[in-house]
Structures are given as structure tokens and as C-alpha cells.
Automatic annotation (TrEMBL):
Gene Ontology CC terms: peroxisome
Family matches, as PANTHER family: PHYTANOYL-COA ALPHA-HYDROXYLASE, PHYTANOYL-COA DIOXYGENASE, PEROXISOMAL
Organism: Parelaphostrongylus tenuis (Meningeal worm)
Entry keyword Glycosyltransferase: no
Name of this protein: phytanoyl-CoA dioxygenase
Claim: Iron is one of the keywords in the record: yes
Cofactor dependency: Fe cation; L-ascorbate
Length: 249
């Protein structure tokens, strides 16, 4: 099977921060977990800024603020409990520090970069997965991120996804299907869920649930880096609390 990145990316040598073995793992499986990648003091800054945004303080005009479909259809909820996701925070100086944080950038450079690379942040997101209402709307169907992106080549796109607090199966951790990044981009559509589906939560058509999957449980600061063709999703949040994560492609 081919190596991702063709003749441009090198997998058989150590990187600046990653070992040869870590790089080969990513090339083979399509993801790599780095524990304690982002320190608590940075996560606390992002959490404080998220609360300010939920209160309407200095919100950039091009930032997208989203609610879960179950919240949008329920009685009025305000503040942090009303917002389940913000996107496009590239003009927010605090949140965008995540995309500039060396502990994240250096890993991405080792995975998809060369000594001449000029990395760009193309998509930014802070997820505040709400407690599920019982209709399982807090799930994210199995999908491939490349479905959302008009730019290529895929092998030179990488997502950094950092847990801002404990993320486990109970509160809806990520689930990945290792090795699927070497497949093709599959057709996507809205899943036919009885409880409704959040806007743009597209899933793979005719997805086979018997495919072997891995649950990515993480502590605060742990970061998973993954390829945009890797099949992944997340489960429902069956706890009483929100589950926060921050990410950038």
C-alpha cells in the first residue's frame, strides 16, 4: 500500500519532536495521540474566553456560534449552556493562540511539513458537547473531514484536536477507524435519526458499523492529530456536564 505524502513526506527518520516510530504510526493508522500536548494554563485561557464569547463580549463578526438542535427547539437557554460549538475563531486573539502553540505546530510540521513548509490554519472550532437530551442529538455520525473541505491535497491536511477536560466514552469521546485514511472520500448525507440531526452533521452513506473502531479517551491537554480522510465520529454525551475540545485544521 502506498505511503501518504508520496515522495514529499519522509516517514523513516525522526522529526523535530516526533520519533520515527510515531511518524510511522500516523502514516499507517491515520492518527496519533500526544499526551499532555497543551498545558493547563493555556486550556484555562481558552475556557475563560469561551465563557466571554457566550456572554457576547468582543465577539468577532465572522465567528460562527452554534446550538444543538435539542437546545434550539427547547425553552430559552442562555450563556455557556446555550452554545455547543463556535467556528472560525481565527480573528480571536486568545483562541487563535491554540493554532500558534508550538507544542501543536511542531507535531503538525513533523507529520505533514518539510523545512520549506508554511502552515496555514484553514478551519477552527471549539466544541462544547452538551448533555444529551435523550434523543441522541449530541452524537456526531461517522464521517471524513475532507467532505467539508474544497482544498487539496488531503495528505497535507492534518487536524489537531485537543481535549480541554476529561473526554471518555461516557461524555462522547472521538471514535476512529484506523487505516481508513488510505481509502477514498465516501459519499456523505444527513443520517436519518429520529431525534433530529444538527446542521452540517453529515455522515457516511451506508456506513458499516461492524468496521473495527477505536475509542479515543483523553485527559485535558491530550491531543489527537489525524488525517482528513480518516473515518471518525463521536458518541452521545450521557453525562450531566458539557464536554469541551478545541481543534484546528
Amino acid at each position: 500500500m502506498y505511503s501518504i505524502g508520496g515522495d514529499v513526506l519522509e516517514w523513516d527518520s525522526d522529526g523535530t519532536v516526533l520519533s520515527k516510530e510515531q511518524k510511522i504510526f500516523y502514516e499507517k493508522n491515520g492518527y496519533l495521540i500526544i499526551r499532555n500536548c497543551v498545558p493547563t494554563y493555556e486550556l484555562d485561557r481558552y475556557k475563560r474566553r469561551f465563557k466571554e464569547i457566550c456572554q457576547g463580549k468582543n465577539v468577532p463578526s465572522n465567528m460562527t456560534i452554534m446550538k444543538d438542535i435539542s437546545i434550539a427547539k427547547s425553552e430559552y437557554v442562555s450563556g455557556e449552556r446555550a452554545v455547543t460549538k463556535i467556528q472560525d475563531f481565527q480573528d480571536d486573539p486568545v483562541l487563535f493562540d491554540y493554532c500558534r502553540y508550538r507544542g501543536v505546530v511542531d507535531v503538525v510540521l513533523d507529520l505533514i511539513g518539510t523545512n520549506k513548509s508554511n502552515l496555514l490554519a484553514m478551519h477552527t472550532m471549539l466544541i462544547n458537547k452538551p448533555p444529551d437530551s435523550g434523543k441522541l442529538t449530541s452524537r456526531h455520525p461517522m464521517h471524513q473531514d475532507l467532505h467539508y473541505f474544497p482544498f487539496r491535497p488531503a495528505d497535507f491536511i492534518c487536524c489537531a484536536w485537543t481535549a480541554m477536560e476529561l473526554v471518555n466514552r461516557a461524555n462522547g469521546c472521538l471514535v476512529v477507524v484506523p487505516g481508513t485514511h488510505k481509502g477514498t472520500l465516501l459519499p456523505h448525507e444527513y443520517p436519518k435519526w429520529e431525534g433530529g440531526v444538527n446542521k452540517a452533521y453529515h455522515g457516511i452513506q451506508n456506513y458499516d458499523p461492524s468496521m473495527p473502531r477505536l475509542y479515543v479517551e483523553m485527559n485535558a491537554g491530550d491531543t489527537v492529530f489525524f488525517h482528513p480522510v480518516l473515518i471518525h465520529g463521536s458518541g452521545a454525551n450521557r453525562t450531566e456536564g458539557f464536554r469541551k475540545a478545541i481543534s484546528c485544521h
